[in-house]
Amino acid sequence: MSSAGVGISGSVELVRHVVARATGCALEVFTAALDGGVPDPATVPSSWGRTGQRRPPSDVIARHKAARDVTSTPLPPVPRRVVHELLELGALWAHTRNGQGATVLARIASATQVVQEGCYLRAYLRPRRFPLPADNTDPCHWIVADTAALVVLDKPAGVPSVARNDNAAEAALPLIAAALTPKIAEGGPSTPTVQLWPTGRLDVGTSGLLVLGRSRKAAAEYNRLLRAGLVHKTYRAVVRRRSADVAPLPPPGSSVIHWMSKMAASPQTIADLADSVHPLECHLVLVNVRLVDHADGVAIVNIDLKTGRTHQIRAQLSHLGWPLVGDVLYGGHAGDTVDPHQPVVNLRCTELSFQWDDHPRTHRLE
Asked: What is the pLDDT of residue 44?
């Protein structure tokens, strides 16, 4: 499947909400339900919100209402080929019964999965794509260490750590699971059967060491170490002074402490002092600071991360006036960034150290 062209050409729809017209296999049910027609004047499908079902976020409902209220223009049909590509990406969802018999919204796993008539269906028509770097397309080469409990990998920049709602295929976890699954025939990969569990994550634009659990128990134990501050993490950042009047970076060995908001949305906001809006402590130590371009104010900084907040390093360095090169979200110079929504932010996790089964483990990258 190519990394471009999935979705409806010219469409601004991100998500379409429909109802299964008949019971059948997923590919046929979605193809029939997405064949176009005039938008339903109803607000949201009646199947939402029943016992055992998770109601969609309010912003999804609002967008869905707005799309149906402002137009009676028929929706464009989604070709069967595109439906199949969306299914392969993991961009199709439906209400299904889980192991406890409750009806929940779940990703469609295969074209032959049975979907019942009247079920609510969700299709992400414009999924974000994450093509692999041209010089690093084999996930087998990402693996740094593979043990009975943990897999440590060198995640490339531009690849998500875990699956997204609109794309479950182009992410480190499923790609590594597929790479670790034995081949069932020479020259052909099997359906991924190796199961991996996520631990701490790296941003899409960040590269470097990432740990996956080979069991739920192993992932939970590693996450416990993370929460307890027992995993030593070192990052290397390339930063650029925002303007000539910005103060120099603190000297090597300096602790840098700020306070972050609890906002789920990015960019994260940072304050010098804790308050009701910024209650989360962010602590890092500048291990080494090397100015490599005096004229442009470009420096390479090695960082010991003491707390692990979302976008913490990016937000703190930007707050100091030294954003990461390429990190346009936090005011950085575009650098090599081509897509502002998918930047390469010149941040790399280069070392992880922790105790496992009473033995020290250290993984380092250049």
From this structure: 44
